[in-house]
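Slide 14.
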Amino acid sequence: MQDAYGTFHREFEVVPATTPTLTKQAHAMRYQVYCVENPYEDKGAHREGMERDEYDTRSVHTLVRHRRSGCFAGVVRLVLPDEQNPDAPFPVEAHCGHGFDRAVHDPRRLPRRHVAEVSRFAVSKEFKRRMGESGSIAGISENATYEDRRLGGAQARRYLSHITLGLIAGLVQMSVEHHITHWYAVMEPALLRLLTRTGIHFRPLGPLVDYHGKRQPGIAALDELLTTVQRERPDVWEVITDCGRDGPLSPVTVPPAVPRPVLPLIPVYTATRATARPAPMTGGSRAFAWAIKRFSSVLLRRGAHNLQVFPPAPQESSPQATPPNLD
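Slide 15: predicted structure.
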């Protein structure tokens, strides 16, 4: 078996629905999954074969396409904040908000302009049958496995749908593009269990709700989520961030540059400003000025910049003293 990143990119590709044709494909797949294969939505209300709702005016989609066949395997929607009314509720708030545990989560404390909801997360029936996963909308089965390259033998088996990871990769891409920092979601318990095994953790917002079957409302901060995935499952992190090219995290932690030391500026005294000339030097101050001058000349020869030095120390009437031995 191949690693997650290699297997996914050999078999699938993430396709943002950024054209009218791709957007229609996303709505058509939603219709197939939510109206035909699983009659959660009224098929008669979507006679064009395109499943839509009131949240699509502020949503973006991503598809996952099977490379060899050219067929689309999965779709996911990200419901964005309402630009005109950031306090407008998300689907999870409208349908499940009454059950939120306010001790855990208060929607009013969220950065509303940077919150989105993961929605219409679905895998087509054709691919679920091919992978032995026909019992789940999200395409989850213990038959969909790959080998974790970090482990060996039976321990290396991990339950995983690569299509599911491709959809999450699409969510990360869309979130970065639209400056989203937090995800709402209402998910099947089976999908949450899969995501937990891949290092992706959502915080429950309350008890299970009956919404197209039993569902768990949850929330996640994207930077914390990706940090946890990178720590717990770097193989999964490679897939959902394209090895760090997508997402707020970098695959390599670069240490901060060490700042160059800033040398103190030493005032320049000129003969044109009598008030700037220092008082006659004593033996100790003359020795200090001589040391500064010599030290500065060494730095300048080595390429030091922005350093100003004293001019020669003013002479007393007595003959110039020999520089003392500073040892």
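Speaker note: Residues 283-301 form the longest helix (19 residues).
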